[in-house]
């Protein structure tokens, strides 16, 4: 499958910007510090500042410089989009650009991701954005999605919707309760870090999908000693098992790039490995 441009994302200069500006940079920084469970003194030592100055910034008695906002955000491991929101709340322009994925400037990135997921075949791999819109997928993913209604694929497929919708993959997932819980917890962790109306709406949608009463799954005759929670799913009468791995870009300098994630599915048993290689010819 070809990489496609994802839908419009929630920009820090849009819905989050007004809220951030109204709240002020001090309370926002304090919120991030408390979320990371770091004291004012520890943050001051990391940022080469003083606990007194950090206190003044958080209470609004002192306006931090643009450099200080970025430095504190880095030591607090604030997501790139939220760093722009902090700058806006402090009265500065956003520092990190948000380049559309189909922009020529990202040609090398798109080509690299395409080669990466194609090279992973016959195992499934895909690329998603911050709201789980699928921007690229290989033939392994296409194989798992065989039989999914076309309406779930348009206008742009969403990985969470495809997985948990009653007409999507959910009826085929043998351990749906566990896998559903894992995905919803993953989204909750993201919501704790990002002010995203689209992500919140997606979470409310997919968490409300009905779950079959028998979704606990069938226990295998001989339990497999999995090393991570597997996705156990049926395909063409076979039961396949995968464990997933998610990769992101190191030290991204662009909001779009920072929010891309590459998820790969590794066969969790020998039978799945053999079946996928047989399908690949």
What does this structure look like?
- This protein is α+β, with helices and mostly antiparallel strands and 281 residues long.
- The chain has helices spanning 15-23, 25-36, 40-46, 51-59, 66-75, 80-89, 107-119, 139-144, 159-164, 176-191, 197-207, 255-258, 270-279; strands at residues 125-128, 134-137, 231-235, 238-247, 261-267.
- Strands 2-1-5-4-3 form a 5-stranded antiparallel sheet.
- A hairpin with a 5-residue loop joins β1 and β2.
- α1 crosses α6, α3 crosses α4 and α10 packs antiparallel against α11.
- The model is unreliable at 1-18 (pLDDT under 50).
Topology:
Layout: H1 15-23, H2 25-36, H3 40-46, H4 51-59, H5 66-75, H6 80-89, H7 107-119, E1 125-128, E2 134-137, H8 139-144, H9 159-164, H10 176-191, H11 197-207, E3 231-235, E4 238-247, H12 255-258, E5 261-267, H13 270-279
Antiparallel strand pairs: 1-2, 1-5, 3-4, 4-5
Helix pairs in contact: 1-6, 2-4, 3-4, 10-11
């Amino acid at each position: 499958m070809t990489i496609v441009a994802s839908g419009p994302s929630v920009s820090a200069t849009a819905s989050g910007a007004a809220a951030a500006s109204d709240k002020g940079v001090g309370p926002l920084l304090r919120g991030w510090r408390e979320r990371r469970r770091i004291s004012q003194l520890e943050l001051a030592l990391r940022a080469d500042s003083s606990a007194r100055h950090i206190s003044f910034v958080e209470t609004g008695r002192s306006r931090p410089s643009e450099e200080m906002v970025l430095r504190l955000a880095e030591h607090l491991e604030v997501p790139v989009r939220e760093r722009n929101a902090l700058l806006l709340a402090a009265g500065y322009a956003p520092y990190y650009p948000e380049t559309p994925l189909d922009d020529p400037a990202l040609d090398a990135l798109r080509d690299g991701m395409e080669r990466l997921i194609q090279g992973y075949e016959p195992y499934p791999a895909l690329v998603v954005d911050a709201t789980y819109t699928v921007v690229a997928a290989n033939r392994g993913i296409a194989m798992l999605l065989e039989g999914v209604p076309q309406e779930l694929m348009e206008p742009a497929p969403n990985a969470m919707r495809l997985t948990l919708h009653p007409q999507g993959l959910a009826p085929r997932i043998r351990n749906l309760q566990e896998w559903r819980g894992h995905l919803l917890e993953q989204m909750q962790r993201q919501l704790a870090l990002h002010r995203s109306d689209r992500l919140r709406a997606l979470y409310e949608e997919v968490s409300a999908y009905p779950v079959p009463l028998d979704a606990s799954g069938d226990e295998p005759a001989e339990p497999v000693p999995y090393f991570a929670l597997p996705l156990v799913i049926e395909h063409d009468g076979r039961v396949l098992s995968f464990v997933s791995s998610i990769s992101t870009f190191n030290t991204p300098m662009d909001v779009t790039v920072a929010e891309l994630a590459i998820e790969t599915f590794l066969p969790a048993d020998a039978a799945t490995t053999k079946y996928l290689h047989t399908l690949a010819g």
